[in-house]
Amino acid sequence: MGSCGASCGIDRRRARLQEQAVARALRVHGDGSAGTPRWWPEKDAFAPAEVDAVAAHFGTVLPARVHVLRDDAMPFATWIYVIASTGPSSWVELRDGAAATVPTEPEQGLRVGLSSLHRAAALQEFAFTGAPADDGVWIEERRVAGVEDRRLQPFVRAVQGVLGARRIACLDAAFLATELGPEGPSLWAALFDAAPMRSCAGVWIETPKLT
Q: What is the DSSP secondary structure assignment for residue 186, as one 8-state letter?
């Protein structure tokens, strides 16, 4: 019989982390049905100060702009945008009201979700485009399931390194696509985001809000 090498340990750890994620999702959603969560922890899995520290850490290991998006309409996770740009502003910051200048180029990067319900993270590739007009600007964000653009692999490795150093489990997109039950949400929807992984959304910002 062959000996079990380091890969066996990695596989066992991955299986354990996945089991823990499923158990937490089932606790939140009871019998696995879609709808309003049946349970919520007394405190979010990540305090705001820790989210900020993780975001700052990303900024020290990557040539990127990093923006924390906190949105009450998205209570399941706090999202950190790691933007593959070092320009003076970004589309996501402009959309969030945190930038006063309009970027001139499309941008892409990683959207890192830190779940409010479970101490785990998810990575998702995003791309932004903008269409300025005389009276405002149209900002559009496209997201995919996981990471498809191989040019982002150095970012993926760096982000995973930061999460690993901070003992934050990183759950992959294929696993998060698993459904909790026949009529239940996916693990992605249960722990991170009600919106589908692959999605596109746009917003119009009027000129008076820009400088």
A: B
